[in-house]
Write a structure and sequence with these properties.
The complex is a heterotrimer of chains A (102), B (666) and C (480). Chain A has a single domain, classed as Helix Hairpins (Orthogonal Bundle). Helices cover 75% and strands 0% of the residues of chain A. The relative contact order of chain A is 0.13. Chain B is built from 28 helices and two strands. Chain C has one domain. Chain C has 20 helices and two strands. In chain C, a hairpin with a 4-residue loop joins strand 1 and strand 2. Chain C is globular and about 70 Å long. Classes of the chains: A mainly alpha (102), B mainly alpha (666), C mainly alpha (480).
Chain lengths: 102, 666, 480
Amino acid sequence: MTAAPIAAYILVSAVLFAIGGIGVLVRRSPLAMLMSVEVMWNAANLAFVAFARQHGSLDGHIFAFLVITVAAAEVAIGLAIIVLIFRKRATVDVDDIRALRG
Amino acid sequence: MIQFTWLVAVLPIISYLLIVALERRLGDKTAYFGIAALLAAFVLSAGIFVEVLNGATYHKEFTWVISGTRAIPLGIQLDHLSATLLAAVTLVSSMIHIYSLGYMHGDKRIPRYYAVLSLFTAGMLGLVIADNYFILLVSWEIMGLCSYLLIGHWYEQKGPQEASMKAFLTTRVGDVALMVGIWLFFAYTGSLKFGEIGEMIKAGHVPATAALVGSLLIFGGAVGKSAQFPLHVWLPDAMAGPTPASALIHAATMVAAGVYLVARSFPIFSAAPPQALLVVAIIGGFTSIFAASIATVMTDIKKVLAYSTVSQLGYMVLALGAGSVVAGTFHLTTHAFFKALLFLVSGSVIHAVHSQEMHEMGGLRKKMPITFWAWTIGTLALAGVPPFAGFFSKDEVLLAAANLPARLTEQGLGHLAWIGNLVFFFGLATAFLTAYYMTRATILTFFGQPRDHHKYDHAHESPGVMAWPLIVLSVPAALVGFAGTTWFGEHGNWWASFIGEQALEWGAAEPHHIGWVMPLAIASALLGILVGYLLYGVAGVKTRQNAITALRPLYTLLKNKYYVDELYMGTVVAATLAFSRVVGWVDQNVVDRIVNWVGAAGEWFADVAGATDRYVVDGAVNGTAAAAMSAGKGLRRLQTGYVQSYMLTMAAMVVVGIILFQVIGG
Amino acid sequence: MSFDYTLLLPELILTALALVVLVIDLSLAPGKKQSLTWITFAGILVAMAGIWPATQTSASQTLSGMVSSDGFSIFFKVLFLTVAALITLASGPYLQQKRLPVGEFYILLLSATLGMMFMSGSRDLITIYLGLELASITSYILAGLLREDPKSNEAAIKYFLNGAMASAVLLFGLSLVYGLTGETHLDIIGKVLNGDISHWPIVGVALVFLVAGFGFKMAAAPFHLWTPDAYEGAPTLVTAFFAVGPKAGAMAAVLRAFTIGFAASSGRWTELFAILAVVSMFFGNLTALWQTNVKRMMAYSSIAHIGYLLVGVTVATTVPGVASVMFYLLAYAVMTLGAFAVILAVDAFGPGDQVGNYAGLATRSPLLAWGLTLFFVSMIGIPPTGGFMGKFYLFSAAVQNGYVWLAVVMAINSAISVGYYYGIVKEMFVGKPLETTSVKAPAGVTAVVAITMVVTLMLGLYASPFLNWATAAAALPRFF
């Protein structure tokens, strides 16, 4: 089985990045936004791994692993903040969170 | 004694610190620290002046390392010009310190007043002995701050508070120009010294355009500080401060600092393209006639003097612009004495009748003889009647202006020689107007019948502590002018050889003698006095009313000071306000507009995306469709405070950046 | 392969310190945690002393060249540790008064500092990214530390969501760079990109992504929108840290990453930074004019200061450019921390954080009022202060490299900024106070104000040692 060309991986990665970006911009729920950001990160991960294969170096793989680790930490913090807000008010629509502005 | 030059500037700082430190314990008595320090400084500078007369000079440098490769020598210097001003400033300042004792009696913030007055004097003295732009700028800012504090001394009242703001902000415009100018020259030459920069310009280290722009920026500082058109608006309003402070800061010293700056920067101006000095001359000439014409209709005695000051400063600037350092600095010195005197007299009058309106005065001559005679001497000096001080210096200024057309031709600007003639005419007309408005003020205040009997009955001669400074200052106001005659000099005009030697090194062009200038100057002064006397001494109120009615438009125009303030309110200030409102609006809306615009473009896309979102995004995200309901909403109207509008801006900017780079290509 | 741990001594000490604080925190009863302040403070001083061995060895790279401990990173390590020390010094009574979790605060502060130290020392995309994330993730928690305050919650969620997206954007940019060069080490990236100009379109995209990611972190307009909200909502002490630390960290990373990795396309990214500089200066200063909340105003002011700093980044291809940015960062850190110490005192131990709350402060607490005035004077750029010297160096660096227009924009902005700083000074000296009792600032806060006042003046009057230091650090031969 021949591997797909590198361009295909990059295209998928770019599409994932765009989908994640749109998701983060249109979804009202911070949870969904967080998940969309995850998609963006993983788009970058895909690119890293694909490039690593192309260049035959390990750096990209290592980078991807580290990103996954960091993302886990980031999600933990994000969920904690969201839960904190959820305890105060019944909704978590980000549009309701705008006491600070101007 | 000359090696103690630094002490002259340090003495007022010491008194400032003492006043601040001991304010709580000694209260109003701290005023004596200021007086003592200033008298000591005066004695010291008088001694220094005598040594300088005998040929001594002084220059002390220390090195200021601003980076590993750059060491900048800074220093203080004492030459003929700075020694003269040192003596003049300390004399005037010490007299004003004494006078204030009477004038400010009973004020609730006397220590603060004296502290600021001392600090201000230190700033002015520091400026005079600086040999570089750094110390000059520091002193300059100190004075600006003190001026602000003194104008706003009675800050409970709305007038002083607003006036202090206006003064601070208006002069700041000039200060920014000055700072940029200094930076510009420093970037090109690596020097901060007056003379050195000029030499490096001559040696071609600075492109001509940069030299022109830089010198005009430096002049911008002078325009702000010396209240030249179009930044003159703050000075008349500054009269809201205590009168002795006006006398010191807004007549004798600080406003003269701008003129001094131009004189000290003369090596730069003369090395820069000749257009730079021409601009200086035009601004000076125009300001002199412009302000003098306004002074003719003012009814507030301090306002008359304020516009007169603007006009006389214009004279000095005109002289410098015409290339004569001698004339400019001579008028600077004489003016310091007689204008400080006139202000102190006006303070004495205001103190007596508790009003500044000349229409509520009249006939005060008999009640206040000392004040009256001091005023008369000051007036004759200002009007330029021989042999009082102002006559000689004004004559020099006019002579310089008369030489301007020839000078322009020499410099290859022959086609602009008409400007020289115009500027000379401005100067001559100003001489006439000056004599006229001073005669008018004299008659309205001191002659005729008292117009407000209540105020007249209340009036009395000022106490000795105020009267003596008037008497002391009358002497130089009357006599200093003789320095500009041939009687003392070994080679002609004494002042011209005293200052001129140095001025020639700076590239100044001292004027040739022109026989018809002096008679013309005397004639216009006498004509002014005559017209003033006829209108206010002989003709009745009715005649004047008729004259005003006949000249209604002109009168209104002058009375409203050519509407410059209104113009500023209407344009500059309004534009600034509007602009920042726009920006405030932009901040709250633009982001959203961009966002909305992006959003609008994406509106249809959002509908399409509704489906996409439901199946692709959710599918990709977690495979559930729990939140699919919100998908069809698309991009709702986003406003600041919404976290997503921030994020969308970020995304939009990334897109814009990429497009930008792809369009301009590699 | 070299693992020279002496070069990482400060980082190691800081890590150990965070763990020690964690353990001690558990063993102390609630309400009796004052000793943590002094443990942290002493530990930071020890970490600072730990920099010394690194200056004595000839080696400068460790962890296989991923991290370097050269003059440049030592300069920034000193800066970050000083910031952490001053924040700690001011923290004790504030944390108590606001009932903030003491142990957590110090651990997060130390971790964030650690992250920033890695950002300044990294020569590899991986370590830059990890350092940035360490600093960011801890910052999100710090912003939301006032758990019961909805404003603090809001600050945290906004900072978090924006930050997460910014880091995704940055990461995607990094992946493109890696794809182009097959390397994560900056030196090699620089060499590869230098060899082949045909990479341009992709490099352009990557550059925009990186500038956006870093621009977010340093709060440069137009990536600044989260800043005012986060600053206003976060606890004042944390805001003080935000205004200095993460900005300086991002600035260090930008200076190193762009001048080494993207030296070949410097003509391009300098243009981008010039645009960001102008936009930041105008946005920050003009919007600040309309603020009534002092913390929010300082947020806009900090955006403007980033604009000034970016003027230096625009000419960062030269030694004076880099050195002027470093010097200004130093001056900025000192005057900003000083100003925030005063704001903290007035907010937590005085009337509040609105401009009106400053009325008559000059008579109530002269030291605070004069201190704040001095810091504002320095921020405007009036001599004889560090802010003046810093602006002066930025200005000369820009002029020398032909960016006269940028320098002029900077001067104009410096004049505009007088407007809002003056408003507060006027309140303090002319306004009528509602109460006449003095604002009782804790000794630690007062000490911070006094120290920063002295240093601000010192940077103005005796700038040369600091500038020489910055210039030597910026002129490292392997830096360009």
